[in-house]
Amino acid sequence: MTHLSNYQGPGQLQGLQTVFIGESPFHKEAKILYLFQLLGGLLLPIYNYLTEDCLNSQSMKSKEELKTLVKEVEAIAKIAGNYIRTERTHFNYSKVEIKGLNDLVSHVDKESERLIVKALKALLPGSGFLVEENTSSEKGDYTWIVDPLDGTTNFVHGIPCYAVSIGLEYQGEIILGVVYEVSREECFSAMASGGAYLNGKPIKVSERQSLSESLIATGFPIYNFEHLDNYLLVLKELMQCTQGLRRIGSAASDLCYLACGRVDAFFEYNLNPWDVAAGALIVKEAGGLVQDFKKGNTWLYGKQICAGNPMLFEEFSSLVNAHLG
After folding, report:
1. Answer CATH for 211-324 from 3.90.640.10, 3.40.50.300, 3.40.190.80, 3.10.450.50
2. C-beta separation of 178 from 70 below 8 A
3. pLDDT of residue 62
4. Is residue 193 exposed (0-12), middle (13-18) or buried (19+ Cβ within 10 Å)?
């Protein structure tokens, strides 16, 4: 397995050329990559052929393969989280850039993404990337979906919580998810058909059976106000029939809090794949349900998500559907 030490600063991984995977299922690709680096461009056609063959031949259905990969991704997420935590100690709001209305970014988002992408490329050569800050855009049968700092607004204002989110999509399905909540040093993880975990311990969604017992998480619209009136109608109903609403500020963390039973349901619109890919898998593997507002399955790319424990999900999703579906 790859051995990744705690992050010491933004340049630590810049010298990374090859991550040796040892006995993991991905060592073949890593060795091919290393050979290519030694011998140069003449081996490019051979490298492309062999790595494509390696990736296509692996169905990613083996639990042992995925267990190994999850551990590697957890280590990468923690390195990025350590960097983010260190930067927060001396971060100044003057370093913030504006991507659009209420859409913030900083050098911390970008550097976190660069180090994550570099490590993931070495871990699974030939894979593609869908990332928030566009530091990489390759496509492949295997696609890493990465939010290097989910909850940027919280981060720049010095408010917990914010997280690193890394999901792996294979042929249209999310098969791996890791969310590292930086402030609490909580690492949530899951793999397809393998259960969900928090810092290595199994987690599951709550068993509260009705909205009257529930605590609901959501995210407020910040720049797309197309559905604002209907969204407020949902809030109005939920305020009157639940124990409360929470706006935490990180969709990845919202989903993980649902997965471990801290909240009972979550909904939000105008989200991107990197906001929900990892967290939604963690919810599913913890026993929760995930849909879009129309009770369909377009939650990953459809910019809307509704999730909850199975005991109250029909009641909750029907309320959301009535106004936003």
Report:
1. 3.40.190.80
2. yes
3. 81
4. exposed
Is residue 271 a contact partner of residue 304, using CB atoms and an 8 Å limit?
yes
- Which structure tokens are listed for 317? 């999703």
Q: How many angstroms separate the CA atoms of 323 and 310, rounded? A: 21
Burial class (CB in 10 A: 0-12, 13-18, 19+), 15: exposed
Per-residue pLDDT, 115: 97
In the predicted model, residues of the chain with pLDDT beneath 50 are 1-58
pLDDT on residue 134 = 73
The C-alpha atoms of residue 119 and residue 137 are separated, in whole angstroms, by: 15
Q: Hey, CA dihedral for 41, 46, 49, 53, is it positive or negative?
A: negative
Q: Please write the tens of the pLDDT for every residue from 281-297.
A: 999 999 999 999 999 99
CA distance 317 to 325: 9
CATH number of 12-194: 3.30.540.10
- Residue matched to tokens 């091919």: 32
**pLDDT for residue 303:** 96
Q: Which two tokens stand for residue 2?
A: 């790859």
174: enclosing H helix or E strand: strand 173-181
C-alpha pair distances (Å), 159 with each of 30, 102, 296, 311: 39, 16, 34, 32
